[in-house]
Amino acid sequence: MEPKKKNKPNTLVVILFSLIVLMVIVYFILVTFFPAVFESLNTGNLQPVPENR
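RE: above sequence
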């Protein structure tokens, strides 16, 4: 009996997925310890449109 070949994902897919997970973890660490860095970022708040336009 031959051993079954395991269906392994591509190495690039594994690396990209792990990078995404790592970036999310680093983001939460930065927000936790350095909240002042992210307070100045634009959050895209809505502004009223002037009536003369």
